[in-house]
Design goal:
- The protein has 424 residues and is of the alpha/beta class.
- The protein has two domains: 203 residues, P-loop containing nucleotide triphosphate hydrolases (Rossmann fold, 3-Layer(aba) Sandwich), CATH 3.40.50; 199 residues, Rossmann fold (3-Layer(aba) Sandwich).
- The chain has eleven helices and 19 strands.
- The strands form five sheets. Strands 10, 13, 14, 15, 16, 17, 18 and 19 form an eight-stranded mixed beta sheet that branches. Strands 2-5-1-6-9 form a five-stranded parallel beta sheet, with helices on one face. Strands 3-4 form a two-stranded antiparallel ribbon.
- The longest helix has 32 residues.
- The chain is globular.
- It starts with 15 loop residues before the first strand and ends with a helix.
- This is uridine/cytidine kinase.
- Pathway: Pyrimidine metabolism; UMP biosynthesis via salvage pathway; UMP from uridine: step 1/1.
- Its EC number is 2.7.1.48.
Length: 424
């Protein structure tokens, strides 16, 4: 299978990082917030360097409480952690952002999770100080009251780093005098980000198209399990396909079919030997799941399968991902994510989506699970109807993922199951 593995990169991989620097009171935060508000997108976040202050020693803590500690010194920032965090985000991984308490001058035990931003705005006085951070920045912005608007081409950024007074300084891409009032300079940054996001969106869509052509002639993987078309299953499918079936009947029979598919999915997960004593005190040697089984529904359609899931595995832990197709670009987009705690330790994760056509949402959902520590071989994708090309894409990129499919649908069939199930 190794030679058939194709490559898939989600749109948040190799994200754009915008560095905003400037002295205290120069309007860095206001500029960053104005950029966020102008973009009005859920995939742009602000990463404040204050979160990466080092935990102080007792001696340093006493100095800080006397207002004598220099928090504007590069030595006050944990640049190693900041660099690791940015590199992980660049690779599409989930990271934990520390929370710094200025009251205690210590990092708190809790952290803030960050995953899948397309653009990160790094804001801080020392944003350009460390060359490792500067090398990852795609555009440099300085909020400065005294310098006129300036611009330099990104291709010369590598030559713009100069050493002066033992501190690293950078020739900025954009210098913003008058801070938030300078709408022209802020608009320049916003348009740069919008152009960058548009280019990434087009590249992601083309990659999905290329992947479809690459696997077009390949047979379905052995890990694709198509439900046996027994008379019962064909009868249920006949009822579901009939446009005159009442909604209450549609829901009843779809839930029944969902139970059968979940039961088939359970046949693919690992079991270990188990021994129990019967009521008559006879010893029975059987099997039990090798660990916790959880499920993640791809909204909104994945919710259709949850009734069957709960009937089959009543105590199953569930999560949610909302992936929607952008109708203007055809690109799947991750809008919401809520996964079960410690999902990386679960023996199996069942991914639910009643219908799969191109496979874009399934590819993205599997990538999300892998980025959160779930081994590819522990993922079971369950769907009522799937196009052959979508299944080929999924198994070409993730050959160890198992898929349980109710039936193979015609290519390009529109999504209709959730509309019939929910009545809207």
């Amino acid at each position: 299978m190794a030679e058939l593995r194709a490559r898939y990169s989600p749109p948040w991989a190799d994200m754009t990082i915008i560095g905003i620097a400037g002295g205290s009171g120069s309007g860095k935060s206001s500029v960053a917030l104005e950029i966020i508000n102008s973009l009005n997108l859920p995939w742009v976040v602000i990463l404040v360097m204050d979160s990466f202050y080092k935990t102080l020693t007792p001696k340093q803590n006493a100095i800080a409480h006397d207002n004598e500690y220099d928090f504007d010194s590069p030595d006050a920032i944990d640049f190693d952690l900041l660099v690791d965090t940015l590199q992980s985000l660049k690779k599409g991984r989930k990271v934990e952002i520390p929370i710094y308490s200025f009251e205690k001058h210590q990092r708190e035990e809790r952290t803030t999770s960050l995953y899948s931003p397309h653009v990160v705005i790094l804001e801080g006085i020392l944003a350009f100080t460390d060359s490792r951070v500067a090398d990852m920045l795609d555009i440099f912005v300085e909020a400065d009251m005294d310098v006129c608007l300036g611009r330099r081409s990104k291709k010369n950024s590598a030559n713009a780093l100069v050493q002066r007074n033992s501190e690293l300084t950078i020739a900025e891409d954009i210098i913003i005098p008058r801070g938030i009032e300078n709408k022209t300079a802020i608009d320049m940054v916003v348009k740069h980000i919008q152009r960058n996001l548009r280019e990434k969106s087009e590249a992601h869509y083309l990659e999905l198209q290329r992947l479809g052509k690459q696997v077009e002639e390949q047979p379905l993987s052995a890990n694709v399990i198509i439900m046996d078309q027994t008379p019962q299953l064909v009868g249920i499918n006949t009822i579901l396909q009939n446009p005159h079936t009442e909604q209450v009947d549609f829901v009843f029979y779809f839930d029944r079919l969902a139970c059968l598919m979940i039961e088939r999915a359970l046949d693919t997960i690992p079991f270990v030997p188990a021994t129990v004593a019967t009521p008559d005190q006879h010893i029975y040697h059987g099997l039990r799941p090798a660990g916790t089984i959880s499920a993640v529904a791809i909204l909104r359609g994945g919710s259709c399968l949850e009734t069957g899931l709960k009937r089959t595995i009543p105590d199953c832990i569930t999560g949610r991902v909302l992936i929607q197709t952008n109708y203007s670009t055809g690109e799947p987009e991750l809008h919401y994510l809520k996964l079960p705690q410690d999902i990386n330790d679960h023996a199996a994760v069942i991914l639910l989506d009643p219908q799969m056509s191109s496979g874009g949402a399934a590819l993205m959902a599997v990538r999300v699970l892998i980025d959160h520590g779930v081994d590819e071989g522990r993922i079971v994708f369950v769907t009522f109807a799937a196009g052959k090309r979508g299944l080929q894409r999924l198994t070409a990129v993730y050959p160890d993922v198992k898929a349980v499919v109710g039936r193979i649908e015609d290519e390009g069939e529109s999504r209709w199951i959730e509309k019939r199930y929910f009545g809207c």
